[in-house]
Structure formats: C-alpha cells, structure tokens
Amino acid sequence: MGQLITPDTLDQYLPGELTFDSAGLDWDGVRLCGWRYDGLDAEVPGLSDYLIVVCQEGATTMHRRCAGNWLDERVAPGSVTLMSRAAPSHWRWSGELAVAQLYLSPSAVKDVAAQVYERAVQDIELRDILTADDPILFDIAKLLMRETQQGGLGGRLYVEALKTQACLHILRHYSTVDFRKPSYAQGGLSRSQRQLLEQFIDENLDRDISLADLASVAQLSVFHFTRKFHAEFGCPPHAYVVRRRMERATRQLVRQDIPLKVIAANCGFTDQSHMNRLFRRVLGVTPAEYRRSRAS
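Above: the chain's sequence. Below: its structure in token form.
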C-alpha cells in the first residue's frame, strides 16, 4: 500500500473551490467539506479516510475507476458516491459540480463496527459505488452542513450522533468487514489486558476509577470492554472494583492504629459513611465492628 493522502491534501489531485469546511470545529472522527469543481481528469492516491460524496448542484456523466473496470453513470443533485479508504482511483467528468465530501475516520467506523458485531475488527472495505440513491446519507450530509455553517445547542453531541448513524448505515448497506482472529478465549480478555487492569485497579483504588478509565487501559470501547470484563471476571467492572476496595479495607482494619476515615480514603470510598454502608450491606457488620471482632 502506498502513502495515503488526507482530506487536507486531496485538493492537490482534485483542485477546486472550497465552499465550507468543518476542520476548525474540533469534530471527532468526522469531517465535512464543500467543493465546487469544473470538469476534471485526475488520478487520486488512496485516502486515509472513508469518503462519501453527495452531489448538491450540477449534472454530468461521471467516469471512475478504482481496482476494477471503469464505471460510467450520471451524477445529479442527490446522487451519493462512496469510496473505501486506501483505494487509488481515477476520475473523469466534464460538467460543473458542487458537492459535499463527508470523511469518516477508520477508528470511528471500526469502533461502531466493534460495538455492533461485538468482535475485534481487522479491516472494513466499502463496495465500489459510483452513484447511489440514498436519502439517509444525503440527509446526514445536509444536517452536518447546516451544523458547519450555523451550529446549535449540543453541537458536538449532535455531530457524534450523526457520525454514528452514518457509520451504521454504511456498515449495513455498503461494507465488507474482516474480523481479527481471537488469540484468547472467546468473549474474555487477553492475559496482558487482565494483568494491566488488575495492576491499574490496585494502584488507583484510592481515587475514583471510571468505566472509561478501565476501557482505555484495555484499549477497547466502553461497550465492548464491559461485556468482555464480565465474561473474564464474572461480574461488572464496578462490582469488581468495590470488591477490591473491601479487600484492602479489611486488611487495613486489622491494624488498630489506622483511623477509620484514613482507611476509607486509602480504599477510595467517598467517605467513612460510604464505607460503613458497604460493609453493613456486604458483611453485615460495620468497619468498627469488624475491627473489634478481629482484635478479640
């Protein structure tokens, strides 16, 4: 595979007039650009991202070749073109066109695919589609264009929802997915993931440990991580962390010289009352009662 180009350098191969761009809006894994083109005859190296092109204005016969033969189809407002990442292409057309180019990063598409299929994804390839009548992708591009130009309440959350919808739609209708062969027991974590998680939890019991923290250590999405953790440890992540807090607290309660509030802080409980409630619920006694029973 040759060097892949980015959306920032595509205009070196397909020169045109940039009409809008979401690059400055700090969107994650998705970008929308508007371009106005005259007729072109251009060869384009493989792109780093998946590309969806929505025709907004103009009509022309489009000629395109990727890995196979030339495709020749009429492009008009509403036409949707899809390009897989890393696929070199050759484009020819003669008329004027105004288009919106929607880029989806490989990590964004893979993350959605991993959640949908509940399996590690090796690669995703889009089918070679020159023109599709797809009102869903057309509407997603239109809504993202409006967000690029006007913005609105909850902008980043709104864009995230549209990105997820676009990824799901192309996975359903236009993709071929290759899965990684598991190197560990089906459904669980690898040995190294388990060791890293156990070490991280033990080293950070005195502070708040979020689900996102744990998923990051395992390098999995939160959804994927939660299922694998339960398969590996037999309980949800939160329950496991609470159990480790209780185990540390019972070890420290044997020492009479450590105040209860210090033990609560050392073990990551919100306060001493929180530790009291958990001990009573799990062991049926308070920490003070547990300490007295161990001293007698």
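The chain has two domains: 10-179, 191-295.
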